[in-house]
Design a protein that fits this description.
Elements (H helix, E strand, L loop, with lengths): L7 H15 L2 H15 L12 H16 L4 H17 L6 H17 L5 H29 L2
The structure holds protoporphyrin IX containing FE.
Protoporphyrin IX containing FE binds next to helix 3, helix 4, helix 5 and helix 6.
Length: 147
């Protein structure tokens, strides 16, 4: 996996835009799952029937990642553990691409005209970094479990 690096400017952009994004957490979460399951119906079976709490978990996790932006070691440990748990949920490495597309699309929809290309790129890079860390954790977990 290629290393993903957030520039100091991108971290700044993420911190600055995060407030505006979390104001719309519920809406983003709703759009996100609708979009994800529309484009990738096979992923629906991985999730429980009721999805209300799920969207909150995703947004809380993103919030925590923003808090850890300047501590990539801590972030790496936390997200690697998340990736290992996701192996047990039946998530495959390639599913991170699908989730990233749906998430970025939902954020763009909700932010409308207030999302600039720089903001979008910064969030895309953050997601790529998290996906990278999660997939590394998943691989280590599979190796350790002989899966
Ligand atoms: C970096 C991206 C992701 C983040 C931040 C994230 C976040 C979370 C969080 C916080 C949970 C709650 C449980 C836990 O902490 O272990 C969770 C559960 C789950 N996630 Fe993710 N996730 C990500 C990627 C994905 C991907 C790619 C899939 C594939 C479709 C996925 C599917 C699931 C499923 C199936 C559950 C368990 C649902 C349940 O049975 O309650 N996630 N996720």
């Amino acid at each position: 996996l290629e290393k993903v690096v957030l520039s100091p400017l991108q971290k700044h952009i993420i911190r600055r835009s995060f407030g505006g994004i979390t104001q719309h957490s519920d809406q983003i979460a709703q759009l996100f799952y609708a979009r994800l399951f529309d484009a990738y119906p096979h992923l629906r079976t991985l999730f429980p029937a009721a999805m209300e709490v799920q969207g909150q978990k995703l947004m809380q996790m993103l919030a925590m990642c923003v808090i850890y932006l300047d501590n990539e070691t801590q972030l790496g440990h936390t997200v690697a553990a998340l990736g290992a748990r996701h192996v047990e949920y039946g998530v495959r490495d390639e599913d991170y691409q699908a989730v990233g597309e749906a998430l970025l699309w939902s954020i763009s929809q909700v932010m409308g005209g207030s999302i600039t290309p720089d903001i979008r790129d910064a969030w895309q890079t953050l997601y790529d970094l998290l996906a990278h860390m999660a997939i590394n954790g998943a691989r280590a977990h599979r190796d350790a479990a002989g899966k």
